[in-house]
Write a structure and sequence with these properties.
The chain contains 13 helices and three strands, in the order αααααββαααααβααα. The protein has one domain (4-296, 335-353): Rhopdopsin 7-helix transmembrane proteins (Up-down Bundle). Helix content is 64%, strand content 3%. It is mainly alpha-helical. One of its GO terms (cellular component) is plasma membrane. GO terms for molecular function: mating-type a-factor pheromone receptor activity. It comes from Sporobolomyces pararoseus. It is a multi-pass membrane protein.
Length: 355
């Protein structure tokens, strides 16, 4: 589980997100920027964690893990919310409900997308505290893992929103695709009349990214939640004091204990859930890191880099110069073992199917 490929893929995902992001920054496309943000703030810790806890499961960076686990809770809502913002925007453009979008319209749309793509995930991060039975868990090769008291409030406050947003995105993506196919001949004029920064080519890539992301993430999230509900009965949420009785605890688990004591399906689910972010990052790169505008940007960066390190001027030998062949430089080469898996109170020592 979580072998070297996982480590390498997470580090590559950081570059997959950064390289094609400049056009989206210039276009101020809020939906894709929030998508980049939530992918980046999750793959970066995954890359760091996979090295720091490669052969250990001890408590190394307590405050860091507090932050990282909250960002993971936000990311599980933030990426689906960003996809919903994106498909909603594409459907609005394809429907051509408004002939012209002025700056006021764009500002209102950005505020709405920021509220949904950033504001709501941060709200869920705060609400997660209600069902956070202890601080977090540490798993060898994975690092910091979110802790959730498995109960009905956990489902309603934290777990369900990614599925809800992806289902809503399905509707908007289907409508946007249908409208695009119905108006494909005059679609360029529709985009021009709306003064949109999105060209036909970018529209197609954005809708394709949304569809592939939905097709990939939605079945996985549905299976994870259903499996948890079937195999882990919801525990009663007695009161705040009962749930948070051991809030300061941090549990740690070695990878060999995970492989021996956890069912095969649960182990697979646990690992797949951590591949969601690097896969989402790679999808973004495949759709936007290899396009004409991205290649043009890479060339500009190459020219700028070349200007920073100009070639040194050729030295004209003089009578006092040392011949190259006689130069001195010419000769130089260039959860601890005794922790029981699961608990009476349901804290995420049952890691594999947690958030």
């Amino acid at each position: 589980m979580f072998g070297p490929v996982f480590v390498v893929f997470n580090f590559l995902s950081i570059f997959f997100l950064i390289l094609p992001s400049s056009w989206h920054l210039r276009a101020r496309n809020t939906a894709t920027l929030t998508y980049i943000f939530w992918c980046l703030v999750n793959v970066l810790p995954l890359a760091i964690n996979s090295l720091v806890w490669r052969h250990r499961s001890d408590i190394t960076a307590p405050i860091y893990c507090d932050i990282v686990t909250k960002l993971r809770v936000g990311g599980e809502v933030g990426i689906p919310a960003s996809i919903l913002c994106l498909t909603r925007q594409l459907e609005s453009i394809a429907a051509a409900r408004q002939a012209y979008f002025n700056e006021k319209d764009r500002r209102r749309r950005r505020i709405e997308e920021l509220a949904l793509g950033l504001g709501f995930p941060f709200l869920v991060m705060i609400l997660h505290t209600v069902v956070q039975g202890h601080r977090y868990d540490i798993v060898e090769r994975v690092g910091c893992v979110v802790a959730v008291y498995w109960s009905l409030p956990a489902v309603l406050l934290v777990q369900i929103w990614g599925i809800v947003f992806l289902l809503a995105s399905c509707v908007y993506a289907a409508l946007a695709a249908r409208l695009f196919l119905a108006r494909r001949k005059q679609f360029a004029s529709v985009l021009e009349s709306s003064k949109s920064a999105i060209s036909t080519s970018r529209f197609v890539r954005l809708i394709a990214l949304s569809v592939v992301e939905i097709a990939f993430a939605l079945p996985i999230l549905l299976f994870l939640r259903l499996y948890s509900l079937i195999h882990e009965p919801l525990l009663p949420y007695v009161n705040w004091a009962f749930v948070h009785e051991n809030f300061g605890n941090i549990y740690h688990t070695r990878i060999d204990m995970l492989e021996v004591n956890v069912p095969q399906v649960a182990k697979a689910m646990f690992e797949i859930s951590y591949w969601l972010y690097p896969v989402s990052s790679t999808l973004f790169f495949l759709f936007f890191g290899l396009g004409d505008e991205a290649i043009s940007t890479y060339r500009e960066w190459g020219k700028a880099l070349k200007n920073l390190f100009p070639e040194s001027a050729e030295v004209v030998p003089t009578e006092s110069s040392i011949p190259y062949k006689q130069s001195l430089f010419a000769t130089l080469p260039i959860v601890s073992l005794d922790q029981k898996w699961g608990s009476e109170k349901g804290d995420l020592k049952r890691l594999p199917w947690s958030s």
